[in-house]
Amino acid sequence: MFENLTVFQTASAMARHAGQSQALISQNVANADTPGYVGKEMPAFAELYAPNEMAGIQRATRQGHLHGSVSVQSMTPTDMRNGDNPNGNTVSLETEMMKAAEVKSHHDRALAIYKSALDVLRVSVRTR
Question: How confident is the model at residue 25 (pLDDT cuts 50, 70, 90)?
Answer without folding.
Answer: very high
